[in-house]
Amino acid sequence: MLKAPGPSKAVLLVNLGTTTAPTAPALRSFLGEFLADRRVIDVPRFIWYPILYGFILPFRPVKILPLYNHIWIKKSSGVVINGKTEGSPLALYTESLTDQVRAIVEAQSHGDVVVRHAMRYGAKNIPAALKSMHEEFPGIHELVVLPLFPQYSSTTTACIYDEVFRFYSDKNRRCVPGLRTIRDYADHPAYVESVATSLLSAIKKYVTAKMSAAADGWKTVLATHMEDVALVFSYHSIPIRYAEEGDDYPQRCEATTRAVQLYLEKETGVPFADSIVHVYQSQFGNQPWIGPKLVEAVAALPAAPSDARKQKFCEACHNTALAKKQVNVCFAIAPGFAVDCVETIHEIAEDASGLFKEHGGRDFIYVPCLNDSEGQVKAITAVLKAAE
C-alpha cells in the first residue's frame, strides 16, 4: 500500500477557548459548554444543571459582559496581533503563537510535521481542528498534543485529553494516529527561563527608571530595596477537594514558582525567598478552593508588620519573613496562563493593582503573560523538541 503524500506527523496546541464576541448570547454559549464539563464542575448533574441553567447562564453573562468588552481588542485600539486588529486577546495570541511555532517546526522537519491549534471550548474546537487536519493531510500517522497549560490540572489538561480521545474513539475512523500527550512543562528549563527573563526585564526597567539606577548597576540597587519589594506569582485556583483526590496541580504550580525563584537568584545574586508570594485567583462558588488568595495578598502586603491581617496572610503562605516587610512595590505575574485573558487583565492588572494601592501600596507592576513573544515561542518549541 502506498504511503499517502505529505506530512506524517502533527502537533496540536490547545488552549481553553473564549467567547466569539463580547455579547451576552456569545458568552452564554461559551459558558454553557465550559461549565457543563464534568472535569470543571463535577457536582451531580441533577444538582448542578438547575443551578447552571436556572441561575448562572441567565444572569452571569450580562454581569461579566463589561469585562469582556473592556479587554476585547477593537480596531479603534490600534493594537495589531498577527496582522489582526479585532478579537479576543486569548484567541489572537494563541493563533499568533501557533503561526510562529509552525514556521520553526515545519522548517526543521522539512515539511514532515504540521502544527495546528485548537480550543477546548467554543469555536475552532478540537474535533473541528482534527477533522480539518486529517482531511488536508491524510498521511498523518502520529499526533502530539500539547495543552497550553504549563501546570497540569484535571480541570484543564485532562479535559483536553478527553476530547482528543473522544474524537478518535469513533469506530468509523479507520486511520487512528499514534497519540502522544505532553502532560505539562511546569519546570522545563526553557519555559522557566522565558518566565524569569520576562520578570527580570520588568524589574530592571522599574529599578532603572524609579530608583535612579544605572543600567549596569540595577541589580545592586535592587538588593538594597528588597525590604520594599514583593514578587507575586498568581495561579488559577481549583477546589481543594480536587487536589485531595489526586490532582497534583498545586505541586506543579509550586514547582514553577520555585524554579523561577532559583533562576532569578542565579541571574541577579539577590535572595528572593523573603519576597516571593505564591497565591491563587479566580475562586468561585461555596466549596473551599486552594489558596492563599491573590486578593488577600495585595491587601496584606502594604500593611505594617504589626497588622493582624498581614500576620494571618503570612501564616497562610508559610512565609514568616514576609510578615516583617511593609511592601511598597509589587511585581505580579501569572505563570499558569500561556496568554493574557480576562482573568489576568481584569483580576490582576486592574483589580489586584487597585486593591494594592487602596491598602497603601505605591507601585504595582503587572508582567504580561508570555503571549506570542520570542520567549514563549522558544519555550514551546523546546518542549516539543524534548518530547520527540
UniProtKB/TrEMBL annotation:
<dbReference type="GO" id="GO:0006783">
    <property type="term" value="P:heme biosynthetic process"/>
</dbReference>
<comment type="pathway">
    <text>Porphyrin-containing compound metabolism; protoheme biosynthesis; protoheme from protoporphyrin-IX: step 1/1.</text>
</comment>
<comment type="function">
    <text>Catalyzes the ferrous insertion into protoporphyrin IX.</text>
</comment>
<dbReference type="InterPro" id="IPR033659">
    <property type="entry name" value="Ferrochelatase_N"/>
</dbReference>
<keyword id="KW-0456">Lyase</keyword>
<comment type="similarity">
    <text>Belongs to the ferrochelatase family.</text>
</comment>
<keyword id="KW-0472">Membrane</keyword>
<keyword id="KW-0496">Mitochondrion</keyword>
<dbReference type="InterPro" id="IPR001015">
    <property type="entry name" value="Ferrochelatase"/>
</dbReference>
<keyword id="KW-0408">Iron</keyword>
<keyword id="KW-0999">Mitochondrion inner membrane</keyword>
<keyword id="KW-0627">Porphyrin biosynthesis</keyword>
<dbReference type="Pfam" id="PF00762">
    <property type="entry name" value="Ferrochelatase"/>
</dbReference>
<protein>
    <recommendedName>
        <fullName>Ferrochelatase</fullName>
        <ecNumber>4.98.1.1</ecNumber>
    </recommendedName>
</protein>
<dbReference type="GO" id="GO:0004325">
    <property type="term" value="F:ferrochelatase activity"/>
</dbReference>
<dbReference type="InterPro" id="IPR019772">
    <property type="entry name" value="Ferrochelatase_AS"/>
</dbReference>
<dbReference type="InterPro" id="IPR033644">
    <property type="entry name" value="Ferrochelatase_C"/>
</dbReference>
<dbReference type="GO" id="GO:0005743">
    <property type="term" value="C:mitochondrial inner membrane"/>
</dbReference>
<keyword id="KW-0350">Heme biosynthesis</keyword>
